## 1
Amino acid sequence: MKYLLHLAQTQLDFRRAELQSLASLNGICVNLDRYTDQSPFLVVELEGEIQAKRLVERAILCKAIYELLGQGTSKKDLHKDVAKSLILCVSCLDLP
């Protein structure tokens, strides 16, 4: 699952190191290749909500984490991506 991290705009040199340390501490494999000091946002892939919570619960420089349901360069692209994500989520449910 994709998650959007909202990072603080302070201590830019420490944000990546903090995330790497917290991931290592919690045994979470996370790819931070898309990280940049130029943006307060970072998209990461995690196994689920439990990993997301563990990654940021002790973070100082992470303001919030959100499940990313979709993304796009236009409103139409975003709507299509979100609809696709919701269809996938519903198909994973064990409904009678």
## 2
Amino acid sequence: MRGFPAGAPRVVPVAVSGAFHTPLMRSAADGMRAVLAAFPRQALHAARLGLEHPESGAWMEWQAALPQDMADLLEAGGRAAEGGGS
């Protein structure tokens, strides 16, 4: 994660928090925060990662499907954003 400062997982919510200035958007954002707060781990996933091997110079790439708990999180987040709760 070169280039990301310590605490980077908190950067995005803080940066976009000012965007929710209508009551409807604020309610959706609060619902999303509640869903994320209940998630037992960091909600990070990369479908595909690639890098150049530092010694051989060979390109290496890995792919991973979305874990079920994160798929469930996205579904619950969609319900929260629609005002349906978690």
## 3
Amino acid sequence: MISLNLRKRIYTSILLLFLTLIVFGSHFLLTYVLIIASILSLIEFYTVINKINLNKLIDFISKLIFTLYIFLFSYIFFFFYKFYKFKNYYIYNFNGLYCF
């Protein structure tokens, strides 16, 4: 018998895989999910940094570096998706995985 925890993990993984395929199919949805994921990661990082007792300068610098990293990652990801057909590369690879 499958435990309840394993069943929840399987359902969650199927849902996330389906969401990933939908996101790569829609330009608007990709932009929306990318913005939401960036904001959530910034909130989580700021919460963790605030729990660690650092001096103000290191606290500010670490938050600034992480914010710039998230912004650049989102921008580069969006750039490759939009201009270099990044979407088609991943859709072809996902279809290749289903052939096995």
